[in-house]
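Lecture notes, unit on binding sites. The following record was shown on slide 14. It pairs a sequence with adenosine-5'-monophosphate-propyl ester.
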Amino acid sequence: MSSIESFKQEERVFNPPADFVNNAAISGMDAYNALCAEAAEDYEGFWARLAQQNVIWSKPFTKRLDESNAPFYKWFEDGELNVSYNCLDRHLTNGNADKVALIFESDDGKVTRVTYKELYERVCKFANGLKELGIQKGDRVIIYMPMSVEGIAAMQACARIGATHSVVFGGFSAKSLQERIIDAGAVAVLTSDYQVRGGKNLPLKAIVDEALALGGCDTIRKVVVYKRTGGDINFVAGRDIWLHELVEKQAAECAPVAVGAEHPLFILYTSGSTGKPKGVQHSSGGYLLWAMLTMKWSFDIKPDDVYWCTADIGWITGHTYVTYGPLACGATQIVFEGVPMFPNAGRFWDMVQKHKVTIFYTAPTAIRSLIKAADADAAVHPSKYDLSSLRLLGSVGEPINPEAWMWYYKNIGGERCPIADTFWQTETGGHVISPMPGATPMVPGSCTLPLPGIAAAVVDEAGHDLANGKGGLLVIKRPWPSMIRNIWNDPERFQKSYFPHELGGGTYLAGDGAIRNEETGYFTITGRIDDVLNISGHRMGTMEIESALVANPIVAEAAVVGKPDETTGESICAFVVLKRSRPSGDEAKQIAKELRDWVAKEIGPIAKPKEIRFGDNLPKTRSGKIMRRLLRVLAKDEVITQDISTLENPAILEQLKQAQ
Ligand code: PRX
């Protein structure tokens, strides 16, 4: 990972190629500046114009932004719409009906194409099936499904009937799933028998069974199961139903239910700095507007593009840039079931070549591991594939270090494709800081400038603006249409986490540090300022992992910190005190393995600590507070040069130096 220093020194500038600029919808910096000026002049009018032009409203809005109960902002409140109508029905009459919406490629390489008309029918049948099960507008539905046409259809079907979905990534454990079911008060779980990734069949339905057996999920009435592999599963009579049996008898039309613009389209759980994940609640109108606008602004989406976002529907990227944005814009997109390394590390490039992908959007972690693989094996080097169809690349989820940016630019983009380094978060709903590829000159490692209308700034802890060149807190000073609306069941935490008093109560605190370039004002994100880690672009709270560790009966105490990692950005390093004496040698290795498996069971494999170190104690202040900043230094195997005068037990540092 590059340090802030190396970002600061980055002086290479790459202008978007002339060809790209000439053909782009937002062409040249004048066009970008004109949009920014329009927003500055009449902020609400700007968004209202875009909302009228992009979204199809079943009842037009007359209200624009309501700030009367800040920070519970409302956008286009009296307008009504249906998000699924906007993604599907609109294409039946605009010439897109027979256009391919989804090109699905399974883990083993089987390709299925689904047109807009076909997808519309599948979603309608699915929606009618949900209605038959008694699911209604406002009900919450958990989706625990793999990357699949059915997974996307499940989300769209919920949107169609006004049910609020909450997708749980297939890598989360039964316990994580149970917690989300309970918090959301969900009435049904949509799942599949298995998911297939990297040549392996992984059970999903069995995990749903386990989650429900953990108790407290009494709100769940039905479990709908998509048959992916046909492998063995347990069936609970009366509760479980096969998806194909549910939908086969349904009509292929289902009237979309109009909902208010503020109706929660979905809740998506993400990690925060306390132990409990936050249910980020998004709206329907403002969210959809953003999904569409950013497809146009950051991706310059065009009717003949073959677009591919590699994110799973279990994350926000898969919501905005797989299920909603591309479909609302009538794009053709690739949906990939598998993983980048299977059957080998050339899989992504092989698929780009085969499907003639024009826009490719992935995470720096994937890029870094593919660089490694290409260095190790010439057969999977991107130069072995025809990538000439590509015209635009995107990056998301974590800072992209300039070296990885350059490799991506040269080896994948052939130095002709702009790279959209899109900064955003589960909470922002979509991109907020990103180059506009036909306008913004790019600097490796910088997400460049805020999208038009986004009042991003870098401030100090008291909310004062900082001069360019000074690092501070990233904030957004004005509400924007796709922002988080609430934390499900926890408005107090919503206010405290994102709109702290210190910043005036109405300014959105992103939770990231940032610095702006002295000359250009370009933003570079310097990483989280809270106890949230970013592992392979996935967010994980240190407290969540600590709670999981101490829930193990042999553990007395645990502290988790992030450690820079060449491939995954950050990795998890846990310092653990056992109730028994400190183990060493093979025994320590064995216990570390048991604890890793334990965390996988408690949260999911993505939360497994890469490294576990055992001590008789943790470094603490006299008042008993764990000194995490020292643990961060130890994890990096660096020498502690910081002040340790408040440390009560300095001898412990020596013990914790060694990894097991
Ligand atoms: O730290 C930032 C990092 O990812 C966090 C948001 O994670 P999540 O809500 O899971 O959403 C990921 C997909 C948008 C941010 O707080 N992050 C995201 N994009 C970038 C980034 N850091 C630097 N550069 C980015 N382009």
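Take-home: Confidence is low (pLDDT under 50) at residues 1-6.
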